[in-house]
Amino acid sequence: MKKLLPLVLARFLAISLAHADEGTVDVDIRPQPLAAALESLAQKADLQLLYPADAVAGKQAAGFSGTYTPKRALEKLLERTGLTFQFTGPRTVAIRTDGSASRHSAAQIDESSPIDLETVVVTATKTERPASEVPATTAVIDEKQISQMYNRDLSDVLRRAAGLDVQRAGTNGIAVINIRGLGLGRSSTLINGQFADFLDPGIGNRSAIQTVDWDNVDRIEIVRGAGSALYGPNAMGGVVNIITKEAPEVPNVTRLFFLFDSLPTYGGGFTTGGTVDSVGYFLDFKHLSSDGYKSAPEPAFSPGAMGTMMHSLEKGEWNKTMAGGRLNWNLSDKANLKLGFNYLDDHNNAFDRPHTPSDGQYGQYSLEYAHWLTDDDQLTVNLSYRDHQTDLTFDSYFYPFFLTTNPQYLLKEDAKKLSGEIRNRWNIAEGHTLLVGFYGSQDWARRRTLNLVSGTLDDHPRNDITNYALYGQYELALWDRLFLTMGGRGDWFEYDLDNDVTGRAARQSYGIFNPRGGVRFKFSEEISLRASVGTGFRPPDPYGLTGARNMPFYEVRPNPSLKPEKSDSFDLGLDVTTPFGSKISATGYYNHLTQYQLLSMHLEDSRLIYQTRNLGKVDSYGAELEIQQKITPELGLFVNYTYSISEAASDSPPGVSGLPEKGRQLPLTPRNKAAFGLVYESNRFSGRFEGRYVDRQYIFGDSRNDPAYALGSYVTADFRVTYRHPIGEKQTMDVSAGVRNLLDRRYETRFIDVFAEPRVGFVQLGMEF
Predict the structure, then answer these.
(1) For residue 364, which of 391, 388, 328, 338 has the smallest C-alpha distance?
(2) Using CA of residue 517, residue 231, residue 574, residue 634, what is the dihedral sign?
(3) For 419, which of 174, 197, 441, 591 could close a Cys bridge (C-beta 3.0–4.6 Å)?
């Protein structure tokens, strides 16, 4: 049998190559970027071409025309490009750099198990690089993984990621991310590489990750570790980059779907897109309505509270309309223009308070122009605009002795963010790349709090913040084994803040510089070691700079001396691919955060004085383990585990709140966290069974990590199965079904009494044509 196996596999390879030579195709390729020429040939010859984007970046195709077999056309197209190709199936071709094809013998090729080409990432260096060459801790959640999950918003996708926690905050459950335990608001969200968060953290109601439709996402790249050297504010724990879909390479693909679950939730939508000549488009639309979330079934008690926290016994409800899209236009052989947008219209009643309707509209619009000045020099210009409009009517949430069910306040949020970036990537010489860029943004944030009982305007802050930055990065690649990056970014901020109710104003400016460096050494194609060091920062809170109300019994005093928080970050990692098909990534990390912003309190002439000050320090350290195992060509296993210590590293002065005692764990940071699952994928069937374990967490306001008030640990599980049935040459119908929260666990997702949904069954019908 052992002697026959190589002969059988060799015969299979010969048959595959013979199929590649069968038939001819008329080819007319004009001079253009190699990636575009490959796409054109793939459509004409009905081929599936597999290659890392970095392999073709910056390469040009010489024009040619005539009648060729697919094999001969590929040979002509790849002449003098340094690339080779190999048929791994009758219509599937793997393209690689010279020499890499020799690593795969005929005995390794199997049509049912195509060669696993490497993931290409952008976020870690702002340039397309294979993940095995990036000296940073990265993870990618791709379109296929997202489609195998049952999501209620995009934040659900992130819950399975190592080193990252998603918490609900605010009245309506704003999803905020916490990377490596540094706390909420200390990691950055990007949309297509552009910073999407508002610099005024008081603007909330919906975070950026909740305003993008998950069906419009190509992949999510997560980079753990300080990222301010490339992305500026808040990137102390890391960055999450949401990359939306681009146009399909075929003339048109349309997909319709309808969804129903047991809450009940119902709705539907469509995606459509295609490419014709030099123009490609993608459009996404959906509408969902739901009876909402599980309400808090009983009152709860919070440490330090004067009475009982009361909650609605009614379920919340919501409906949302989402849309998104991309337009790609190849202006010439060397220039490309991309337009993109994401929009959410959201109406809901909060699930933890009675009578708290919220209405919001959120939009994100972007433009990207890329031009190859030469074969080794690319100029890119980005413009991005974000608009946030919402009205939230709410009651008085907490009273010691009674609960009002009448709306008392109307909060109106109006925020806009305009940002732009121009960068130039220059391949100086073989293995040497220089990236330089300029970034600028302007934030306009307005909030009004109306007292509906008295008819007065209680609060009206107006915060304008300008941010300019220059950054540079040098990348070195030697012998295909050593990869080095080093660079830094200087940021300049100007604050123009005022509140016409309190009469408080602030005019501040400051600058900060953040360096970064990283190295990866590949002992072989299967084993590599990486390390990185960097710094990060979080700008001063506008609320802390201006203060707020001045009442007879208390005052929120401004602090014009407030400084940005700073962090130093280190990590060391090992990536291994075993002979058994396992991919293992292990990382240890350490972060030290200083100038932590805390709210101090003291008595002054019988009045309580509040003021935000830089009084705290935090240490965060731990380990992350990620394992992927291919069991069969169709079945795979994944496991990740995070161990995180995130504790106060300094004693807070008397009368200061916001951090626990020195050596105690920070709130909402589980010490142990794990995700695990099985994934099956074939032509007709796919399925995903997964579970999550989250350790005990401590709540806000608990300075001593008191177990009596801790959120309990839990294990939850989900599964989804899909059957795809062909109904025509290029048409399919699919049916998906599954259960979310299979074990019906009752667990809290916020500091107190905000519960996850109960067990939910769902069915989804779809058609693609």
Answers:
(1) 388
(2) negative
(3) 441
